Amino acid sequence: MADTETLQIKNVHKTFRVGKQDIDVLEDINLNVSAGEFVSVIGASGCGKTTFLRLLVGLEGEYQGDILLNGKRLNGPSINRGIVFQNHRLLPWLTIEKNVGLGLESKKGNNKAQIVQDHIDLVGLKGFCKSYPYQLSGGMSQRAAIARALVNRPEILLLDEPLGALDSLTRMYMQNELERIWKLENITAVMVTHDVEEAVYLSDRIVIMSCRPGKIKRIIPVPLSRPRDRASYDFMRIKEEVLKEFHLQAEEHFAYSI
Ligand SMILES: Nc1ncnc2c1ncn2[C@@H]1O[C@H](COP(=O)(O)OP(=O)(O)O)[C@@H](O)[C@H]1O
Ligand SMILES: [Mg+2]
User: What is the pLDDT of residues 105-144, one digit of tens each?
Assistant: First the structure.
């Protein structure tokens, strides 16, 4: 059954050489992600989450183990994986349409302008094609970053704390938007987050990582129907279960984030 999974991560181990020392950052990572699944990765700062995503994008050349996409070992970055970072990383001197179109594969030819427009519409930025990044709010900039990541119609969308820099109301609104886009595009998503509630709200499964070296400690399924009710008993129960993994319980930790 595992061989039919879209993304297979098998016995992955990542070491960084710092000076004369090898530092183990990820150890024994095993995870299969199915087509269309939404998986969140949650763990303390420095436990290797960004490194893990960089491996999935193909930005970290050397690692032990295997990362397979549709049965083929990843070999460098490719347009079938799009990534969104915490900071939107839009180029300030380009309009939104130019930013979104920048990475668009050249063979799309004459259709390019339409594809860019469609993705700008998809993320709810209709009418802002000619705006510059400084003219957009934080949430709008992240929308543009999501459009840029999706413009080549990747199979997998990787998100590294994509909503981490937003205020809490915008963040909740953008969580709904992410869910809408994920469903509409029927895409496989792997998202790193620090926010337990965000992970429970959006994910089919939550991967909990422990630190030094980063390992998968536990995978918690979230079998709740969507859209999810943050105030429901089942939602709170799963949130509590995740918090317990970090020795935090709802009644003693009101911020709900780690
Ligand atoms: N290119 C690198 N060279 C050396 N060490 C690195 C490099 N990238 C990340 N690290 C180290 O790997 C660990 C995990 O980093 P990172 O993946 O960014 O963690 P997280 O995203 O969970 O906060 C940290 O200790 C960090 O200092
Ligand atoms: Mg990180």
Answer: 766 566 889 999 999 999 989 999 999 999 999 999 999 9
Residue 102 inside a domain? The answer is yes
What pLDDT is recorded for position 5? Answer: 72
Q: Tell me, yes or no, whether 149 lies in a domain.
A: yes
Is residue 239 assigned to a domain? yes
Per the DSSP assignment, residues forming a β-bridge with 252 are none
Residue 48 beta carbon below 6 angstroms from any ligand 1 atom: yes
Minimum mean pLDDT among 31-45, 94-108, 123-137: which range?
94-108
Q: Are residues 161 and 145 in the same domain?
A: no
| Protein residue with its CA nearest to atom 26 in ligand 1 | 46
Check if the beta carbon of residue 146 is closer than 8 Å to that of residue 84: yes
Ligand 1 atom index nearest CA of 23: 5
Q: Is the CB of 44 under 6 A from ligand 1?
A: no
Q: Ion ligand 2 — residues with CB under 5 Å?
A: 50
Q: Can you give the pLDDT at residue 66? A: 93
Ligand 1 atom nearest the C-alpha of 52 is: 17
Per the structure, the complete domain to which residue 219 belongs is given by 1-80+156-169+186-258
pTM, 2 dp: 0.91
Q: Is residue 69 located within the same domain as residue 106? A: no
Pocket lining: 47 vs ligand 1, CB cutoff 6 Å: yes
Residue 2 has pLDDT above 80, yes or no: no
